[in-house]
Design goal:
By secondary structure, the protein is of the alpha/beta class. The protein folds into two domains: 1-43; 53-260, SGNH hydrolase (Rossmann fold, 3-Layer(aba) Sandwich). It is 53% helix and 10% strand. It contains eleven helices and five strands, in the order αααβαβααβααβαβαα. The protein has helices at residues 2-43, 45-49, 65-77, 98-110, 127-132, 135-139, 153-156, 162-179, 199-212, 220-224, 246-260; strands at 81-88, 114-121, 146-149, 184-187, 216-217. Strands 2-1-3-4-5 form a five-stranded parallel β-sheet, sandwiched between helices.
Length: 265
């Protein structure tokens, strides 16, 4: 009888031990699944905020590699890139400027990855006006990561000599770097001018300056606009002006958007 009682006690103890072990295993499994789900949600946060797409450095391969890596570092940390557009103002009824098109497309594609600010100076502003009136510092009140600068050469054409203007452009760059010494600066010209004679030479010198200073030059003239000496070019300009129409602003914006969006990835 005592032997049977002992056996029953041992069976009960064994059942309790097995039950406890089995319960702890199920609990650990449930916790593990919940933790994995949480980590997966965290990993996907940037993917959802940047347009339902997990980004890689290849998405920005049309930019200089150090710039692409910088953007990805920001993306992986969940931080916004402060991107600033500085240049001439274009106000035409019924026409959205290239800068507005660019901002809308970037925000639609990348959501909160880029914080885009537009600084457009109204009226005819020369390179000398920018320097004499300290217009960079007066308008740039925060720390930029990337600046796309259209340095007012068109309005300076025929008024300020190109070498003097390029000196002013260098001062603009220095002013931006005083705010952030690690800033990425992209230089670009304004729109082409139909059958212009001197202005294209000035733009070529701007490109040479950018290359000499190892700055990224946005050559939207060569790749997107029609030949400015052709009649086709007039289809992209408001009649009897030098101002781009909607088609002109669109192809200008398309080129810069393409720098930030590698469609092959």
């Amino acid at each position: 009888m005592r032997a049977i009682l002992t056996l029953v006690v041992l069976i009960c103890i064994g059942a309790l031990i097995y039950g406890n072990y089995h319960w702890n295993g199920k609990l650990a499994s449930a916790v593990g699944k919940e933790e994995a789900q949480f980590l997966n949600n965290v990993d996907n946060t940037n993917e959802l905020e940047s347009g339902e797409k997990e980004l890689t450095v290849e998405d920005f391969s049309n930019l200089p590699i150090d710039n692409a890596k910088f953007i990805m570092d920001k993306y992986n940390r969940g931080e916004a890139v402060e991107l600033v557009l500085i240049g001439s103002e274009y106000k035409t009824a019924g026409v959205q400027s290239w800068s507005g098109i660019f901002k809308d497309e970037m925000e639609q594609t990348y959501k909160n990855l880029f914080n885009i600010s537009i600084i457009e100076l109204s009226g005819e502003v020369t390179t000398e006006d920018v320097i004499n009136n300290d217009l960079i510092n007066k308008n740039l009140s925060f720390i930029p990561d990337i600046v796309i600068l259209e340095p007012f050469l068109l309005d300076s054409n025929g008024i300020i000599g190109i070498e003097r203007s390029l000196g002013h452009v260098e001062t603009m760059i220095e002013d931006v770097k005083l705010i952030n010494s690690d800033v990425f600066i992209f230089l670009q010209p304004a729109q082409p001018i139909h059958k212009a004679i001197y202005y294209p030479d000035e733009v070529a010198k701007l490109q040479s300056m950018a290359e000499d200073q190892e700055l990224f030059y946005i050559d939207h003239w060569t790749d997107n606009w029609p030949d400015y000496n052709s009649d086709e070019f007039l289809e992209y300009i408001i009649p009897d002006t030098i101002i781009p129409n909607q088609k002109g602003h669109q192809i200008w914006a398309d080129y810069i958007i393409g720098l930030f969006q590698n469609e092959e990835t």
